[in-house]
Design goal:
Layout: E1 4-10, H1 28-39, H2 47-53, E2 59-65, E3 74-81, E4 84-86, E5 92-93, E6 98-105, E7 110-119, H3 127-132, E8 143-145, E9 157-159, E10 162-168, E11 176-185, E12 194-203
Length: 204
């Protein structure tokens, strides 16, 4: 996708592969237990709770499943922050190549900046790793580009709600996976910026 997405997920945690129950039914009390576990988390280990309470989400979806032979339901909650439209990025690029990051931010968001960072390669995670990890932090941008008037490696061109900048992705000519983020200010965030788009490009 092109927007900013966060997720809450809860399931049965023994790591065994199971077929899904095609005719599963879900008891409200069991679903409420999952939601209660999310919302009653204690800071600073409260990523699920913060996802639920974050005011800037513009869309929400829920997925439910139940493994055969297991009475406990699995739930995934998807939170989307959609505040703009963005020009497509290439799926892959070459080291040294620049990419165009451009688009239009929609009210009530106001454009803040474009972030670039090299992140870990995409790879499957086994059940043990998933079960032992409760939160996946969003990587901080290594380089942030701002509009003219701010200290920035290169200014982002801004015309009303539209923005554009051509940027190199590589850090020291390193191949790998790079995140490209768009940041904005919202009425409830004051001077702080929040990510409203997060995409990746594989540098070869």
């Amino acid at each position: 996708g092109t927007h900013f997405v966060q997720e809450n997920a809860a399931c049965f945690f023994d790591g065994q592969a199971r077929e899904l129950d095609a005719d599963a039914t879900f008891e409200a009390a069991e679903l409420e237990k999952i939601e209660s576990a999310f919302i009653n988390e204690t800071p600073p280990n409260d990523g699920h709770r913060r996802n639920i309470l974050k005011a800037s989400h513009t869309a929400f979806g829920v997925g439910l499943a139940k493994p055969e032979g297991v009475p406990q339901p699995c739930m995934a909650q998807e939170f989307v922050d959609a505040y703009g439209e963005y020009e497509p990025l290439p799926a892959t690029a070459r080291v040294g190549e620049v990419v165009l990051v451009a688009g239009e931010v929609h009210a009530p968001a106001s454009f803040g900046g474009v972030g670039i960072a090299r992140i870990a390669p995409a790879e499957p995670l086994d059940a043990r790793h998933l079960n032992e990890t409760s939160t996946y932090p969003i990587p901080e941008p290594r380089t942030l580009y701002f509009p003219k008037g701010y200290e920035t490696p290169k200014p982002v061109e801004v015309d009303g709600n539209r923005f554009s900048i051509e940027v190199p992705l590589s850090e020291g000519s390193q191949q790998g996976r790079y995140e490209v983020s768009v940041w904005a200010r919202l009425p409830d965030t004051g001077d702080s910026m929040v990510a409203i788009s997060l995409r990746t490009v594989l540098l070869k």
